[in-house]
Amino acid sequence: MKLQNSGKFIAAITGLFALGNAFAAPTVTRLNPPSALFTYADSTPPYISRFLPAQRFDLQATIQADAGKTITSVVFKVNGTPVTAAGGASAITSIGGDKFSATIRGYSNSTAGVKTLIVEATQNDSLVATGTGNFEIANITLNAGRKAKNIIWLIGDGTGIAHRTAARIVSKGASLGKSNDPLAIDTLPVTGIVTTHSLNSIVTDSAPGAHCYSTGNKANNGQEGVFPDDTTDKWDNPRIEHMGSYLARTQGKWLGIVTTADVEDATPA
Hints:
Layout: H1 2-22, E1 27-32, H2 36-40, E2 50-51, E3 57-64, E4 71-78, E5 81-82, E6 91-96, E7 99-107, E8 113-123, E9 128-137, H3 161-172, E10 174-175, E11 178-179, H4 206-215, H5 243-251
Parallel strand pairs: 2-9
Antiparallel strand pairs: 1-3, 3-7, 4-5, 4-8, 6-7, 8-9, 10-11
Protein backbone atom coordinates (compact mmCIF):
# COMPACT_ATOMS: atom_id res chain seq x y z
CA MET A 1 0.00 0.00 0.00
CA LYS A 2 2.80 2.37 0.92
CA LEU A 3 4.62 1.55 -2.31
CA GLN A 4 1.48 2.24 -4.33
CA ASN A 5 0.97 5.61 -2.61
CA SER A 6 4.62 6.51 -3.18
CA GLY A 7 4.25 5.68 -6.86
CA LYS A 8 1.18 7.89 -7.14
CA PHE A 9 2.99 10.73 -5.36
CA ILE A 10 5.98 10.51 -7.72
CA ALA A 11 3.67 10.39 -10.73
CA ALA A 12 1.84 13.47 -9.49
CA ILE A 13 5.08 15.42 -8.96
CA THR A 14 6.33 14.37 -12.40
CA GLY A 15 3.08 15.54 -13.93
CA LEU A 16 3.40 18.92 -12.23
CA PHE A 17 6.93 19.35 -13.58
CA ALA A 18 5.75 18.39 -17.06
CA LEU A 19 2.89 20.86 -16.80
CA GLY A 20 5.30 23.58 -15.69
CA ASN A 21 7.61 22.89 -18.62
CA ALA A 22 4.69 22.97 -21.02
CA PHE A 23 3.86 26.52 -19.91
CA ALA A 24 7.43 27.76 -19.41
CA ALA A 25 7.87 31.30 -20.62
CA PRO A 26 10.40 32.26 -23.30
CA THR A 27 13.39 34.26 -22.05
CA VAL A 28 15.61 37.07 -23.33
CA THR A 29 19.20 35.81 -23.05
CA ARG A 30 21.03 38.81 -24.57
CA LEU A 31 20.20 42.50 -24.98
CA ASN A 32 22.38 44.98 -26.88
CA PRO A 33 23.72 47.54 -26.15
CA PRO A 34 25.28 45.64 -23.22
CA SER A 35 24.39 46.85 -19.73
CA ALA A 36 24.93 45.92 -16.10
CA LEU A 37 21.19 46.39 -15.64
CA PHE A 38 20.40 43.48 -17.98
CA THR A 39 23.33 41.28 -16.93
CA TYR A 40 23.40 41.88 -13.16
CA ALA A 41 20.16 43.81 -12.44
CA ASP A 42 22.40 46.77 -11.49
CA SER A 43 21.04 50.14 -12.65
CA THR A 44 23.76 52.28 -11.07
CA PRO A 45 26.71 53.93 -12.89
CA PRO A 46 29.16 53.50 -14.46
CA TYR A 47 27.01 52.70 -17.48
CA ILE A 48 28.51 50.11 -19.83
CA SER A 49 27.26 51.60 -23.11
CA ARG A 50 27.55 55.36 -23.76
CA PHE A 51 27.00 57.24 -27.01
CA LEU A 52 27.35 60.73 -28.41
CA PRO A 53 24.13 62.61 -29.22
CA ALA A 54 22.78 61.26 -32.54
CA GLN A 55 25.51 58.58 -32.78
CA ARG A 56 24.03 55.55 -34.54
CA PHE A 57 23.99 52.06 -33.05
CA ASP A 58 21.94 48.89 -33.41
CA LEU A 59 19.47 47.42 -30.92
CA GLN A 60 19.58 43.62 -30.71
CA ALA A 61 18.12 40.86 -28.56
CA THR A 62 18.46 37.08 -28.42
CA ILE A 63 15.34 35.20 -27.31
CA GLN A 64 15.17 31.57 -26.20
CA ALA A 65 11.74 30.26 -27.19
CA ASP A 66 10.05 27.19 -25.74
CA ALA A 67 10.73 23.90 -27.53
CA GLY A 68 9.04 23.84 -30.92
CA LYS A 69 7.78 27.42 -30.61
CA THR A 70 8.63 30.52 -32.63
CA ILE A 71 8.94 34.23 -31.88
CA THR A 72 6.38 36.16 -33.92
CA SER A 73 7.08 39.76 -32.90
CA VAL A 74 9.73 41.78 -31.07
CA VAL A 75 9.28 45.35 -29.85
CA PHE A 76 12.10 47.54 -28.53
CA LYS A 77 11.19 50.46 -26.28
CA VAL A 78 13.40 53.35 -25.13
CA ASN A 79 12.01 55.10 -22.04
CA GLY A 80 8.68 53.46 -22.79
CA THR A 81 8.43 54.63 -26.41
CA PRO A 82 8.45 51.90 -29.10
CA VAL A 83 11.32 52.16 -31.58
CA THR A 84 10.21 51.85 -35.19
CA ALA A 85 12.62 50.25 -37.65
CA ALA A 86 13.01 51.56 -41.18
CA GLY A 87 10.90 48.68 -42.51
CA GLY A 88 8.26 49.10 -39.82
CA ALA A 89 9.29 46.11 -37.66
CA SER A 90 12.43 44.60 -36.20
CA ALA A 91 14.06 41.82 -38.21
CA ILE A 92 13.62 38.41 -36.53
CA THR A 93 15.97 35.57 -37.47
CA SER A 94 15.95 31.94 -36.32
CA ILE A 95 19.47 31.02 -35.16
CA GLY A 96 18.83 27.38 -34.19
CA GLY A 97 18.07 25.60 -30.95
CA ASP A 98 14.72 27.41 -30.63
CA LYS A 99 16.66 30.69 -30.39
CA PHE A 100 15.82 33.85 -32.29
CA SER A 101 17.68 37.09 -32.89
CA ALA A 102 15.92 40.43 -33.40
CA THR A 103 17.65 43.60 -34.58
CA ILE A 104 16.85 47.23 -35.31
CA ARG A 105 19.59 48.94 -37.30
CA GLY A 106 20.80 52.52 -37.03
CA TYR A 107 19.00 53.73 -33.91
CA SER A 108 20.08 57.12 -32.53
CA ASN A 109 19.04 59.45 -29.74
CA SER A 110 19.87 63.15 -29.46
CA THR A 111 18.68 63.78 -25.90
CA ALA A 112 21.33 63.47 -23.18
CA GLY A 113 20.73 61.21 -20.20
CA VAL A 114 20.36 57.59 -19.13
CA LYS A 115 17.80 55.67 -21.19
CA THR A 116 15.94 52.50 -20.21
CA LEU A 117 15.84 49.91 -22.99
CA ILE A 118 13.10 47.27 -22.89
CA VAL A 119 12.55 44.45 -25.35
CA GLU A 120 9.27 42.51 -25.50
CA ALA A 121 9.26 39.30 -27.53
CA THR A 122 5.97 37.49 -28.23
CA GLN A 123 5.88 33.74 -28.83
CA ASN A 124 3.38 32.12 -31.20
CA ASP A 125 1.33 30.97 -28.19
CA SER A 126 1.11 34.61 -26.95
CA LEU A 127 3.61 34.17 -24.11
CA VAL A 128 5.85 37.22 -23.78
CA ALA A 129 9.54 37.44 -22.83
CA THR A 130 10.83 40.76 -21.48
CA GLY A 131 14.36 42.06 -20.97
CA THR A 132 15.46 45.41 -19.52
CA GLY A 133 18.76 47.24 -19.94
CA ASN A 134 20.02 50.79 -20.19
CA PHE A 135 22.49 53.05 -21.97
CA GLU A 136 23.59 56.66 -21.69
CA ILE A 137 23.63 59.52 -24.17
CA ALA A 138 26.55 61.74 -23.15
CA ASN A 139 25.95 65.37 -22.28
CA ILE A 140 28.39 67.20 -24.57
CA THR A 141 29.17 70.86 -23.88
CA LEU A 142 30.55 72.58 -26.98
CA ASN A 143 33.41 75.05 -26.63
CA ALA A 144 32.21 78.58 -27.36
CA GLY A 145 35.59 79.53 -28.87
CA ARG A 146 37.08 78.76 -32.26
CA LYS A 147 36.71 75.22 -33.57
CA ALA A 148 39.83 73.18 -34.25
CA LYS A 149 40.25 72.75 -37.99
CA ASN A 150 42.54 69.73 -37.81
CA ILE A 151 43.11 67.17 -35.08
CA ILE A 152 46.08 64.79 -35.10
CA TRP A 153 45.26 61.79 -32.99
CA LEU A 154 48.12 59.45 -32.08
CA ILE A 155 47.20 55.98 -30.82
CA GLY A 156 50.04 54.02 -29.24
CA ASP A 157 48.71 50.47 -29.53
CA GLY A 158 49.64 48.74 -26.27
CA THR A 159 51.61 51.77 -25.10
CA GLY A 160 50.72 52.06 -21.45
CA ILE A 161 52.37 54.16 -18.75
CA ALA A 162 54.88 51.40 -17.98
CA HIS A 163 55.96 51.22 -21.63
CA ARG A 164 56.42 54.98 -21.81
CA THR A 165 58.43 54.95 -18.59
CA ALA A 166 60.69 52.18 -19.88
CA ALA A 167 61.19 53.99 -23.20
CA ARG A 168 62.04 57.23 -21.39
CA ILE A 169 64.62 55.54 -19.16
CA VAL A 170 66.27 53.64 -22.02
CA SER A 171 66.36 56.54 -24.49
CA LYS A 172 66.87 59.54 -22.19
CA GLY A 173 68.20 58.17 -18.93
CA ALA A 174 67.35 59.27 -15.39
CA SER A 175 69.37 61.03 -12.68
CA LEU A 176 68.54 61.52 -9.01
CA GLY A 177 64.95 60.41 -9.51
CA LYS A 178 64.21 62.61 -12.53
CA SER A 179 64.21 61.93 -16.25
CA ASN A 180 67.06 63.60 -18.11
CA ASP A 181 64.73 64.59 -20.93
CA PRO A 182 61.07 63.99 -21.86
CA LEU A 183 59.89 61.83 -24.72
CA ALA A 184 58.30 63.61 -27.65
CA ILE A 185 54.98 62.06 -26.64
CA ASP A 186 55.36 63.70 -23.21
CA THR A 187 55.24 67.14 -24.85
CA LEU A 188 51.92 66.69 -26.64
CA PRO A 189 49.33 69.24 -25.47
CA VAL A 190 46.65 66.68 -24.59
CA THR A 191 47.00 63.06 -23.45
CA GLY A 192 44.18 60.62 -22.79
CA ILE A 193 44.17 57.15 -21.28
CA VAL A 194 41.46 54.60 -22.00
CA THR A 195 40.69 51.62 -19.75
CA THR A 196 40.51 49.02 -22.48
CA HIS A 197 39.20 45.89 -20.74
CA SER A 198 37.03 44.07 -23.27
CA LEU A 199 33.51 42.85 -22.53
CA ASN A 200 34.69 39.27 -22.06
CA SER A 201 38.23 39.67 -20.67
CA ILE A 202 40.28 41.94 -18.41
CA VAL A 203 43.12 41.49 -20.93
CA THR A 204 42.14 43.09 -24.23
CA ASP A 205 43.53 42.54 -27.70
CA SER A 206 43.99 45.26 -30.30
CA ALA A 207 40.50 44.96 -31.79
CA PRO A 208 38.35 45.90 -28.77
CA GLY A 209 41.15 48.19 -27.59
CA ALA A 210 40.87 50.26 -30.77
CA HIS A 211 37.08 49.85 -30.59
CA CYS A 212 37.13 51.78 -27.29
CA TYR A 213 38.80 54.74 -29.01
CA SER A 214 36.80 54.65 -32.23
CA THR A 215 33.28 54.07 -30.86
CA GLY A 216 33.45 54.98 -27.17
CA ASN A 217 32.20 51.51 -26.22
CA LYS A 218 33.26 47.98 -25.30
CA ALA A 219 33.48 44.88 -27.50
CA ASN A 220 34.55 41.25 -27.14
CA ASN A 221 38.12 40.24 -27.90
CA GLY A 222 38.51 39.69 -31.63
CA GLN A 223 35.69 42.12 -32.44
CA GLU A 224 35.77 45.78 -33.52
CA GLY A 225 32.93 48.14 -34.35
CA VAL A 226 30.27 45.68 -33.17
CA PHE A 227 28.62 44.24 -30.08
CA PRO A 228 28.65 40.42 -29.61
CA ASP A 229 25.64 38.37 -30.62
CA ASP A 230 24.70 34.67 -30.78
CA THR A 231 24.63 33.99 -34.52
CA THR A 232 27.27 32.17 -36.56
CA ASP A 233 27.25 34.91 -39.22
CA LYS A 234 30.19 37.20 -38.41
CA TRP A 235 28.79 39.99 -40.59
CA ASP A 236 25.42 40.50 -38.89
CA ASN A 237 26.50 41.70 -35.42
CA PRO A 238 24.89 44.86 -34.02
CA ARG A 239 27.06 47.78 -35.12
CA ILE A 240 28.18 51.08 -33.56
CA GLU A 241 29.01 54.15 -35.63
CA HIS A 242 32.74 55.01 -35.62
CA MET A 243 33.88 58.49 -34.62
CA GLY A 244 35.23 59.13 -38.12
CA SER A 245 31.89 58.26 -39.70
CA TYR A 246 30.01 60.23 -37.04
CA LEU A 247 32.06 63.39 -37.60
CA ALA A 248 31.82 63.02 -41.39
CA ARG A 249 28.03 62.68 -41.21
CA THR A 250 27.35 65.38 -38.62
CA GLN A 251 30.10 67.93 -39.36
CA GLY A 252 31.45 67.11 -42.81
CA LYS A 253 34.88 66.11 -41.46
CA TRP A 254 37.42 63.98 -43.32
CA LEU A 255 39.51 61.19 -41.82
CA GLY A 256 43.00 60.14 -42.88
CA ILE A 257 45.09 57.35 -41.37
CA VAL A 258 48.87 56.95 -41.15
CA THR A 259 49.95 53.64 -39.65
CA THR A 260 53.17 51.77 -38.92
CA ALA A 261 51.15 48.54 -38.82
CA ASP A 262 49.37 46.82 -41.71
CA VAL A 263 46.41 48.97 -42.66
CA GLU A 264 44.05 46.00 -42.20
CA ASP A 265 45.30 45.35 -38.66
CA ALA A 266 42.79 45.83 -35.85
CA THR A 267 43.88 49.27 -34.64
CA PRO A 268 44.03 51.16 -37.98
CA ALA A 269 41.03 49.25 -39.34
